[in-house]
Write a structure and sequence with these properties.
alpha/beta; single chain; globular; 39% helix; TIM Barrel; two-stranded antiparallel ribbon; 278 residues
């Protein structure tokens, strides 16, 4: 990855630098979470994503501490679960996350899903107070479709909306809002839970560059304005592979081939999910 500029690997949103490629820790627990975070930071990742619902914040915190990387060089995200969206509970949960993560602040705190029970105004007010106290650098949301995101943005500026996004699921309305309001869309499940790996079209594109289908998918996502991503990997080999996506460029024809793929695969749609068409 020689001759890369900072702009190649870092996205600047609202004056804040966010590493475009993050290491995600969903379903990574125990010592695997500690080892994975430490290894990701050794490889060069500087964006780490976790959540209270992942039940691994303490292990992620241990990995951060063990890495020896300066805290100020790491962009750290965690998320508050729906049970803690009332303001007092949200603040307590956030402070517990800081203890677990062994840090005085997180760079980004997200509402993990929209709540049907607690008005978003109440939760965002609590997040603003945490921001004023220096405990979070920025508030954001996750799994908010475009209509919900637009309404939240009327209440307070947000840095990010983290949503499922990959070559088989479009997010055009959210991307338009992101450019309009200068926020990032962070793609989770960017490899579509393994559906990308071995995909015929993506594999064929990758063969032109000596890259895998997964690397093609990540490169395609990161070619979009305002997009960052957090990708999970269970081995050092895979973490390294995912990180090596800044040393090649897709052609316009490649991107058009990927854009033309069906965009109807949603892998995360639990019973509490919002109306995605909102």
């Amino acid at each position: 990855m020689a001759n890369l500029t900072r702009e190649d690997t870092v996205l600047t949103i609202q004056g804040t630098e966010i590493p475009r490629l993050g290491y995600g820790t969903w379903l990574v627990t125990g010592s695997d979470a500690t080892d994975g975070v430490r290894d990701a930071l050794e490889i060069g990742y500087r964006h780490i994503d976790t959540a209270r619902a992942y039940e691994n914040e303490a292990q992620v915190g241990a990995g951060l501490a063990d890495s020896g990387v300066d805290r100020g060089d790491i962009f750290l995200t965690t998320k508050i679960w729906l049970d803690d969206f009332e303001p007092a509970e949200l603040k307590r949960a956030a402070e517990d996350s800081l203890r677990q993560l062994r840090t005085d602040y997180v760079d980004l705190l997200l509402l993990h899903w929209p709540s049907a029970d607690v008005p978003v105004e109440h939760s965002l007010q609590a997040m603003r107070e945490l921001q004023e106290e220096g405990k979070i650098r920025h508030p954001g949301v996750s799994n908010f479709p475009a209509g919900m995101l637009a309404r939240a943005l009327e209440i307070t500026p947000l840095l990010a909306d983290q949503v499922e996004y990959h070559p088989f699921l479009a997010q055009d309305a959210l991307l338009a809002l992101a450019q309009q309001h200068d926020l990032t869309i962070t793609a989770y499940s960017p490899l579509a839970h393994g559906k990308v790996v071995g995909h015929q079209e993506l594999t064929a594109i990758g063969e032109q560059y000596g890259k895998s289908a997964g690397q093609v998918a990540l490169r395609w996502l990161l070619d979009h304005p305002n997009v960052t991503t957090a990708v999970k990997a269970s081995s050092r080999e895979r973490r390294q592979e995912n990180f090596d996506v800044f040393d090649f460029a897709l052609s316009d024809a490649d991107r058009e081939r990927i854009t033309a793929l069906p965009k109807d695969l949603r892998t995360a749609n639990p019973s509490w999910a919002p109306d995605w068409s909102d």
